[in-house]
Amino acid sequence: MTRVFSAMQPTSDSLHLGNYLGALVEWVKLQDTHDAIYSVVDLHALTQSPDPAQLRDRTRRTAAQYLAAGVDPERSLCFVQSHVPQHAELAWALSTFTGMGEAGRMTQFKDKTQKTGESGANVGLFTYPVLMAADILLYDTDVVPVGEDQRQHLELSRNLAERLNSRLGEGTVVVPKPHIVKETAKIYDLQDPVKKMSKSGGNPKGIIEILDDPKKVAKNIKSAVTDLETQIRFDRDAKPGISNLLTIYSALSGEAVEDLEARYEGRMYGHLKSELADVVVAYLTPLHDSAMEWIDSPDRLDTVLAQGAAKASAIAQVTLDRVYDRLGLLPALHR
Ligand code: TYM
User: Fold this and answer.
1) For residue 147, how far is its CA from the centre of ligand 1 (angstroms)?
2) Which of 20-24, 81-85, 117-121, 134-138 shows the lowest mean pLDDT across its residues?
3) Pocket test for ligand 1, best of 16, 19, 21, 157 (most atoms within 8 A of CB)
4) pLDDT 10s digits, 225-277
5) Closest by alpha carbon to 167, among 232, 98, 111?
6) pLDDT tens-digit series, residues 127-141
7) How far is the CA of 102 from the CAs of 85, 130, 152, 177, 245, in angstroms?
8) The 3-8 sheet, strands edge to edge
9) Where are the beta strands (DSSP E) in the chain?
10) Secondary structure (3-state) at 224
């Protein structure tokens, strides 16, 4: 079976609809046909200097939302990155294969250091995509389901994999492919629909959080920024707000965008927004309830994560041993 790997950072109390539609929905589907491994990447979150208690809480909350969304621990591995030390070990080796210029070209690094300047950023933020490559390559991953904003990082993972294979011999690592679903690869901010919906910054009214109070979800949708026309049609350039609402509607209801356009012909934006608010609330309510059940049973959650980490670590060690051996590091006979 081909292998799928993906991950999210525990950097907020709740995932948002972009995380859910851009990635998590695909994770759940892919576990039917793939050998799936999903991680909560807490080491990546350290680049944002989180409060320790908050990081602990958000790590569990993120895992709880994976499980609530349908990641099935009987079929998929679900674990916390810091529990599998091989991630940091392979990242170190990969960093010696990564050019300074190559890492400096990453647009997310540039965006995140815009305010402070590069000299005000920590080195972890700079090497962040190298750790992400380690996450992926450790599991001989074939397919990585992510949103559009991770495309460039994945390209770096592919380049590093090819470089390793060319310097250390074919078969050292598997070259991963991105799995980015065009329609939902970028869900936009409701208040600023040319910007992606994002956990950090922005107007809280612009995002829909999975664990939000349904009243707030409905309010945010009803106050979404649209345009001065009245026609409900999909046109990303001329009508970014309406196009975003149609994308969300279609993804959650399974109704094609063209069918929605036909159904809303001659009707007002207010109708679309209020019916979409009902669809979103109905969709998120069971997800929210199930996530809260997991959050309220930390022991059960920790058991799932511990079992996932034990299995993930066994797979990761095989890859790490192969890479270390080809690099010329002596075998660790004490183990
Ligand atoms: P993160 O935690 O920022 O986001 C998690 C996932 O959500 C997707 N996403 C979106 N998709 C559609 N529309 C949006 N507005 C939107 N916002 C976020 C992201 O593309 C991502 O798939 N670097 C990664 C985490 C990571 C990782 C990995 C991913 C670390 N190691 C290995 C895959 C494989 C990140 O920060 O995602």
Assistant:
1) 6
2) 117-121
3) 19
4) 999 999 999 999 999 999 999 999 999 999 999 999 999 999 999 999 999 99
5) 98
6) 999 999 999 999 999
7) 25, 11, 11, 19, 36
8) 77-80, 35-40, 3-8, 143-145, 177-179
9) 3-8, 35-40, 77-80, 143-145, 177-179
10) coil
